[in-house]
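ARCHIVE CARD
Drawer: 12
Card no.: 0347
Subject: one protein chain, sequence and derived structure
Cross-reference: see card 0346
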Amino acid sequence: MSAAQRIDGKAEAARVLDSLRDDVERLREQGCAPCLAVVLVGDDPASDVYVRNKVLRARETGIESVEHRLPANTSEDTLLTLIAALNADPAVHGILVQMPLPAGLDEHAVIDAIAPAKDVDGFHPANVGQLVLGDATLAPCTPNGCLHLLRQVAGDLSGKHAVVVGRSNIVGKPMAALLLQANCSVTVVHSRSTNAAALCRQADIVVAAVGRPRLLDAGWIKPGAIVIDVGINRIEIDGQPKLVGDVDFDSVAPVAGAITPVPGGVGPMTIAFLMKNTIAAAVRQQAMRDAIAA
C-alpha cells in the first residue's frame, strides 16, 4: 500500500495569507486598517512563542498589531478593564487573550468580557451559539483551518462520515459543528466512549484532538481515510525533546489516504485563520459604522 498524501499545512497557510494581503490592501484603500490586539498575561514560554508568531504573521499580512504584556500577578479586574478599553477602541478590530491564563484568573469571565464582534478566537458564547445554529460568525481558528485542509484534499465533504476524537470547547465541539455544516455525518468520541477505535475505523475523515501522544495508530484508521492531527504534545525520545501529535504518524501514514504531520500541519493554519477572522471582523465593523453614518 502506498504512503498517504502528506498534507502540507505550512504551504497552504502561506497561500491563505497571500490571499489575505489583497483583502487588507482593499480595506486600507477604503480607510480601514485592520488591527489585532494580543494580550499575554504572565511569562509562559510556549504562550510567548505563540504570541510572537501571531504578531509576526499579522505584520507580514499587513494587519496592524498591538501587544499588551501583563505580569503573572495581574488582577482579574485589571485584565477586564483592559479588555473593556479594547472593546471600546474603534481602531481595534480583533482581541485575542492568549490562553492558558495564570492561576487565579477566570478564563470564562475573560472570554465573556470580549465583545463578540472582536472575538477573533471564536470562543465567546454568542459566537459559539451562532456556529451551532449554522449562522455566519467568527468560528474558532483551529477547526476552521482543519476544515479548509479537508476541503483542499477532498473537495465536497457532503455525505462523508467524520469522527472527531475529543470534545473540547476549543477544537472538538466546534469541529463537529463545522463538519455538520459541511453536510458530513459526524461522530464524536471521547474518554467515555465505548470502542473508540472501532468507531474511528468506520470514518472517511478522522480529526484527532484529544491531547494524548500517538494515541491513534493504524488500528484506528480505515484504509484511505483522511486524518487531521490537531495534537501538539511535547515528549522526550532518547532523551531529546520532540513534538508529536495525537496520531502515530509512522503507523498511520501507510494506511491513510492523506494525513497532516506534526509539526507543519494544522498549527500554521490556526494562525492563518486568526488573520482571516481579524479581517472578517474589520469588514463587519466597518460596514456597521458605514450603515450608522449613512
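Annotation on reverse: Residues 266-293 form the longest helix (28 residues). The mean pLDDT is 95.
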